[in-house]
Amino acid sequence: MYCxxxxxxxxxxxxxxxxLLNTISGWHSAGDVIMIEQMPILGxxxxxxxxxxxxxxxxxxxxxCILNSDIHLDGPIxxxxxxxxxxxxxxxxAHVACALDYNTDVLLANQYYTMAGPCTEMCLLEIAxxxxxxxxxxxELISGVASAKGVMMDKATGMExxxxxxxxxxxxxxxxxxxxxxxxxxxxxxEMNYSNAPAGRRYQDCYQVNDALPSEEYIxxxxxxxxxxxxxxxGF
Length: 236
Fold this sequence. Notes:
single chain
């Protein structure tokens, strides 16, 4: 019970209330590992990419300096699309992570909210783009995936997490300039589809529920997407 992270969220934007302080105080008394989450809203009170990045850095520093957390989980959310995989949110998150990674030794995480649902190429492409950005910018932990914006029932499976891990591993050691080129190419293939993103399949429709194994359809789609991402420059 003392090694699994306890997660709590800061309030948007840059706010703290007594409930959060009481929760954190109790966890510290118990000797728990604490992860604080804050997902600034890009296009909201914080403003655009630059302002959201500043807000995100401040939120991260506050989680360590005020709440004495062990890990900070970031992830700017696009105000219109409700996702972390938009071009602007990827840009903000990557600059934040690079700045903090260069100047501190804190543990940084990021959350994943895709527009498309499971068992779709668009969902896997979104995941790969953010995994590449997070890995190249120095995040230690990547958390997800909340497919279909994390608001639909039964719309999350293990295959999305598998893509997250494989795309991250494929990015390790690459030059930033090359990663930027790859991300630009991947994002350009899905960003025009936000208004009509595929809903995807429910877990029970693309998995063998009793065995917790993906369907042949999903495996084939996953393999073909790996080939596609390899053509974009990610080496699996």
